[in-house]
User: Fold this.
Amino acid sequence: MLSYKAPLNDIKFLMEDVLDFYPHFEKFPEFEEATPDLIDAIFQECAKFCENELLPLNQSADKEGCHFENGEVKTPKGFKAAYEQYVAGGWQSLSHGLEYGGQGLPPSLGLIKSEMMGTANWSWAMYPGLSHGAMNTIDLHGSTKQKEKYLTKLTEGTWTGTMCLTEPQCGTDLGQVKTKAIPNGDGTYSITGTKIFISAGEHDLTDNIIHIVLARLPDAPEGTRGISLFIVPKMHSDEQGNITDRNGVVCGSIEDKMGIKGSATAVLNFDNAIGELIGPENKGLECMFTFMNTARIGTALQGICATELSYQNALEYAKERLSMRALSGTKEPDKVADPIICHPDVRKMLLTQKAFAEGGRAMIYYAAKLADTIEHSKDEKAKKRADYRLGFITPILKAFLTEVGVESANLGVQVFGGHGYIKEWGMEQIVRDVRISTLYEGTTGIQALDLLGRKILLSRGKSLKSFSMEVLGFCKDKSMISSNPHKRQMNKFIWPLSKAVANWQQCSVRLAMKAKKNRDYVGSASVDYLMYSGYVVMGYFWAQMAQASYEKLAGEVENRDFYRAKIKTAEFYFERIFPRIKSLSATMMADPKSLMQLDQELLSFL
Amino acid sequence: MLSYKAPLNDIKFLMEDVLDFYPHFEKFPEFEEATPDLIDAIFQECAKFCENELLPLNQSADKEGCHFENGEVKTPKGFKAAYEQYVAGGWQSLSHGLEYGGQGLPPSLGLIKSEMMGTANWSWAMYPGLSHGAMNTIDLHGSTKQKEKYLTKLTEGTWTGTMCLTEPQCGTDLGQVKTKAIPNGDGTYSITGTKIFISAGEHDLTDNIIHIVLARLPDAPEGTRGISLFIVPKMHSDEQGNITDRNGVVCGSIEDKMGIKGSATAVLNFDNAIGELIGPENKGLECMFTFMNTARIGTALQGICATELSYQNALEYAKERLSMRALSGTKEPDKVADPIICHPDVRKMLLTQKAFAEGGRAMIYYAAKLADTIEHSKDEKAKKRADYRLGFITPILKAFLTEVGVESANLGVQVFGGHGYIKEWGMEQIVRDVRISTLYEGTTGIQALDLLGRKILLSRGKSLKSFSMEVLGFCKDKSMISSNPHKRQMNKFIWPLSKAVANWQQCSVRLAMKAKKNRDYVGSASVDYLMYSGYVVMGYFWAQMAQASYEKLAGEVENRDFYRAKIKTAEFYFERIFPRIKSLSATMMADPKSLMQLDQELLSFL
Assistant:
């Protein structure tokens, strides 16, 4: 059975000691209630809900799955009750605007809440999670009337929402969308088409589901420039928000998947369903992309959630399971064998998980602060800066953290040996659940093209330059030439980090030059380039966490072991994980010829 | 739906052009029938059986699983019929001795047969596969009477066999085995205990199952030196081999697993089951280990099988699925988008699979030739040399090929995007099925300790020296200073390969020295060291395949494209995969301190 305890100490460390969340909140008058006391109290409540209500449904939901019959979906046992408790607790409204019933707390806190819930039970957390996307769309692009009609219900959690993008013939390539929207003459539209892979597209948690649908108006231009966005509710409602009759959208089936089995993935058939246009005609994709970054950070989270859950359980197992004697000499002579945590390779696997969980958490929280600024700052320049930075870091977070999440979950299975393969323990479920994360919301390959092609090359390296200036600034500030009292200890992090950043810049310039002559360099380098970037960014956060820990240890602090452990984990990261950039640095620069020269007919001779 | 065609061209290429199987067979008079014509005919029949009978049961068996009721296991629909066809076709007896009804063909051919069957349906193939282990044990250590009683039935396939090692408290650490064997005074023993994770431990394919069981005699020494080996049949039989009554072994349950669901993994309860001692008292583990290498090669095969199956299906999908335009310019203007195989990163994933499948196949066939020599050579020196070499290369093959098998299967899912996550396509099943391969028959960590601790350090590097002399000999022989007509083209492989081998040797020496002072170096370096070794060994075989292809192309040969494709795949391997050794080379040398310094209580602060 899986166990989970919310990492409240780590959350506090990041918010207070590393990322200065409270000075950050103080910049926004509307966040004046977001004090350490309130937030501690909220997170403690949240932890209880996750540990006591969501976690126990994690493995049972995987076993049971969702049930589909006659267009209706029944979620696994306990999901509905947990959702009702969630709504009653006001969790859905936590970081949404006061205007439509939200509690107005910072978006970053909503993300931290999502992390805990997603770790305890990712499948369950997808139902409320998808709503945030729909809410953001309506909030940013909806008319006042639309906001009044939909946003209040969604903020309460009385209704949930979805994003309907994918169709059978296209996922990434949304220019191929075929779903049609025909004006009815009364301001509404008749939507007809098939959408697939719609998470939370049908379920029994709420009476209504608000679909945000990509579709084409008649005579719309071909491709991506002819797509508009529509609100299509499952049920119509009257002025008072009471549900009236059924709209023309029906769930045709749900997918039988590798994992996240408690989360219903629906095929939705729209047959002259009544919809409302949201945002300008033919600008549907632009509207969608305005909050794509936040959605993708929400998916990046899954990598961390899987890593944390797998780590916590692998660690306990490794302390208990007895096998062989330590090569360096018997550790527990009174037992039949030593616990496997004595073996260096088991420790390597555990520390890899630990380094990814904690390093990734820092990366996510950094992005969450940017999201606060983007959504709440009155300073247009600061807002733009944050948006630019978030745009740069998002593909790295999404792809890198989900890839290392898959790796970590697999390491968790490996620590358990053969038992890791048995369902009962839950470790293999984490592997199956997290496997989707490198696929949805843009595959790793798509994130990598976004990073190298759009964010780096199109900006002529500006976004990288600005980020690497930040990192190098930190390095200079903490290094031998500075007044940092911990500079001697920090050197082991600063030196490889600054070297790696310099190489990152150089490789980027070289790739830009090569790509001018041969566009295939972009695609051939992209994934290795992204993973390189990920290790460097994570290295930056590990260095910051080490610096913060040295600072705390220099003062009077109670939980000294906590800070010592951070520093030692940083050492592990830089010695055992960071050198992965060496290989990536070589392979990303390889000529695309080795990929492109083989005619596709010659790839197999069967 | 998964498709599969046996790679007969690649098998032929390896046997004839690269690894000189026929001159090798000629060394053994008993293999005189193993001519190219006969073998081609056998493999064509085998391919038909795999493609038409086994493959169609692959996904349905995953869906259905095995059924357990009252101690009995029902295998998935179609398994029994396929098994009967297999036995009727004489497939089980292919490479077993004539004396007990075998066909006496080389063991290497048995392995190639197992590869095809395992690719088409690994779960099914485990039932006859496990028998080979039992047969080898009886063949090597059984008395004439035991051989007569059991070997004929097992060779026919009328009965199957198992290996019963693992118990709830121990898998790797067999010294903890508790199952007891009490002498009955009549030469038989009463076996009592619980064995878990017994593949093919109970099923409905045959009327009898012969268990080979590790157990302790009364007053046996503690630990590994007090374990003996027993033959414990599920059903007793009379002198004529007719089944009589039930023995005291009952299947208590079967495991609910991540994958290989068609393969029953049994908990076996032995309650005063009657068994016969096989081999000397207290020498059970030694007896087991005599054929552990071959068993592990059989498991290494799973990495290749998964890679091949995933590659074949991903390749077809990549040619058909249309998404986006190639960055280097539209490839298919008359279609709505270009097929995804135009995108460099998709090609990178496919070529990675291809390089691992074909490179891994060469490694396995090399090992298979060694097995022929070990089992059939009359030249004791040659036999010993082969055994030594196989012992060195086995942990590399087992761990490296299964690790890259897991990677490849995941890449196959990634090529399919979101569809890869849906069961229907079968791609996610390959990931689930192959995931067991790095766990059973010794985890990757155990293989790595075997390699670095036993095979390298205990032999003072002799085994590595002898193998690397072979590789460096090849390098010298094909390089610029030789008379090789293809030396100019071969240089791009020879140079990095010989450099990597030199570094391999240096690192080994340095690790040996460090390990003398600190034993934890062995465990901390081991897995990275093993993976480094794997990439180098695979590089050696890719270089050999390239050389063989150049040689073929220099002559009059029909399928020139086949050889060109081999060379280009070798180029891909050396440019995009081989550089992974750079990072491994760094991390394996890191001080174990970064793994060991954190007290286990400080690994978490929840």
Q: What stands out?
A: The CA atoms of residues 114 and 125 of chain A lie 7 Å apart. Chain A touches chain B through 107 residues (CB under 8 Å).
